[in-house]
């Protein structure tokens, strides 16, 4: 026989559709709870105890909740007994008081009135997402302020905390998920649909990755950077640079990037800290397309995979100090990190041969283990 906790569980399952009916202004209809129609108790006291349990939690005893309808049924073991054949909630109040949701639904009604009055076009979203209305029920006034600002200013070009909205400075950051869903509807023609990051999607400024580089030509350093030769700037600013350089060295690791300070000063050259797979930050730097590009990474599988990635952006890229001679000369039997990549790589035949050897044996020679004088001698001969 069904128990009061099971009745409550089944009633909870009807709660979402009830909320949807409120949005649609559908009158409340009797909510029927399907009961267990099998009665297997062979002991009359046990049977009576179960019957009394569901009766004590019913509207008849509590003044609200589910109503029971009984019918005389002939049972296998207990003879003819009055058994509950129908369980239902007759009114909205009965249903909500039983679930202890009266206040929640009162706030839900207030919220949907406020939202639909401000943005009628959100009604369909509310119908599909009633629980999210409840989850955010203390925040709707502020959420709607944010939405109103964006509908009037769909291309703010400001940082989130610069937006002139009378809300807590961290409010948007804390409520991005629901705000995103609403703005996707309200300003759909202005959003960058392919972008998942909130700031990029909604035309806001954001903390860009920095590109760090060294100017290896003293004249360029003096003329463009007041003599500074170690610079880090946002990616978009780096993309917009217009420097008279011809050669660009990209170094995988920070330590070897520092090594470029010891290089012989090179005319019309800069060195960039690639930071491993973060070389993806350089893929839209169009002014690199006609430069001589030299990539210097670890002699391990990841080093060659990053080289392949970078060469995918700039096919003219040449690897340096990543050859078999350098590997054999300085290898110290270090293990690398296994790679699961099986795709075809953008490598030359010699690079691919070394890559396969490294992958098979899980070997690694870090850039840092190549002596400075060997590196300097290489560039002196460049």
UniProtKB/TrEMBL annotation:
InterPro entries: DUF3322 (IPR024537), JetD_C (IPR024534)
DUF3322 domain segment(s): 4-184
Taxonomic source organism: Draconibacterium orientale
Pfam families assigned to the protein according to its UniProt record, in alphabetical order: DUF3322, JetD_C
Source taxonomy: Bacteria, Pseudomonadati, Bacteroidota, Bacteroidia, Marinilabiliales
Segments forming domain Wadjet protein JetD C-terminal: 206-377
Protein name: Wadjet protein JetD C-terminal domain-containing protein
């Amino acid at each position: 026989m069904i128990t009061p906790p099971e009745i409550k569980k089944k009633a909870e399952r009807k709660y979402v559709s009830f909320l949807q009916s409120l949005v649609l202004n559908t009158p409340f209809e009797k909510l029927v709870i399907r009961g267990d129609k099998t009665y297997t108790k062979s002991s009359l006291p046990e049977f009576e105890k179960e019957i009394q349990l569901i009766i004590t939690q019913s509207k008849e005893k509590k003044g609200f909740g589910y109503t029971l309808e009984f019918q005389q049924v002939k049972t296998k073991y207990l003879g003819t007994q009055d058994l509950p054949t129908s369980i239902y909630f007759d009114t909205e109040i009965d249903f909500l008081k039983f679930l202890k949701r009266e206040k929640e639904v009162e706030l839900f009604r207030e919220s949907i009135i406020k939202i639909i009055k401000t943005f009628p076009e959100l009604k369909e979203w509310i119908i599909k997402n009633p629980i999210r209305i409840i989850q955010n029920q203390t925040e709707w006034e502020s959420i709607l302020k944010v939405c109103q600002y964006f509908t009037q200013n769909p291309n703010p070009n400001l940082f989130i905390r610069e937006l002139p909205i009378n809300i807590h400075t961290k409010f948007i950051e804390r409520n991005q998920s629901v705000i995103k869903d609403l703005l996707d509807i309200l300003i759909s023609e202005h959003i960058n649909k392919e972008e998942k990051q909130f700031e990029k999607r909604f035309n806001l400024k954001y903390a860009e990755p920095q590109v760090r580089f060294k100017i290896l030509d003293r004249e360029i350093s003096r003329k463009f950077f007041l003599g500074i030769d170690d610079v880090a700037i946002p990616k978009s600013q780096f993309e917009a640079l217009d420097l008279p350089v011809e050669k660009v060295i990209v170094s995988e690791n920070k330590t070897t990037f520092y090594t470029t300070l010891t290089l012989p000063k090179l005319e019309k050259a800069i060195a960039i800290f690639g930071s491993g797979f973060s070389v993806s930050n350089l893929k839209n730097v169009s002014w690199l397309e006609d430069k001589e590009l030299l990539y210097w990474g670890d002699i391990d599988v990841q080093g060659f995979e990053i080289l392949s990635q970078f060469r995918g952006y700039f096919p003219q890229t040449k690897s340096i100090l990543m050859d078999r001679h350098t590997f054999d000369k300085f290898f110290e039997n270090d293990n690398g990190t296994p790679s699961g990549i099986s795709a075809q790589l953008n490598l030359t035949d010699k690079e691919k041969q070394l890559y396969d050897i490294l992958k098979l044996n899980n070997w690694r020679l870090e850039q840092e283990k190549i002596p400075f004088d060997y590196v300097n001698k290489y560039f002196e001969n460049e």
